[in-house]
Predict the structure of dITP/XTP pyrophosphatase.
Amino acid sequence: MTRRLLVASTNKGKLRDFAIAAGADVNLVPLPGLEGIAAPDEDEDTFVGNARIKATYYSRFAPGEIVIADDSGLEVDALDGAPGVRSARYADDIKFVGEGSADVRNNACLMAALVGVEARAGRYRCALVAARDGVVLAVGDGTVEGRILVAAQGYGGFGYDPYFLPEGATGSMAEIDSTERLLLSHRGRALRDLLPKLML
């Protein structure tokens, strides 16, 4: 029996990563009407805290359904864990001057922060929370270790993917194919951690 989970995201990259990891047994569907729902404040200082806020909040808009929400981002050791939970807002937070999309500006900001830095270890981290009717049901966690490249490689993915080289990968997160991404994606790992806890 295929079980349906609603995903509190319209990000096509995230939805793709989750769908690849879910396989045929779980049907992941974007939360209906999500675009018209005001977003909650994500004011926690941990990924799991922000994911919990979103999952409990959005689940109240779909009574009886299980809603999953994530918070994820890039942690760089040389930057004391930044961008971290502020990954999507990194450039704005430090008033970085630049042009282009949020992804372009965030990546330019990251490169500027790492000028002259040789130790570029970091990781992608994802916390994934499932909730129903405002109550948390389970929490999943996924991490992929790697390092930050000095220049972008590849045109796939989104966010910091062109600059992140996962351990053991054949290319950056923006270069690898869906099979390799299934094994390495922090979101995929978080979903695979979460699903058994829901006993679907």
The CA atoms of residues 19 and 28 lie 6 Å apart. The radius of gyration is 17 Å.
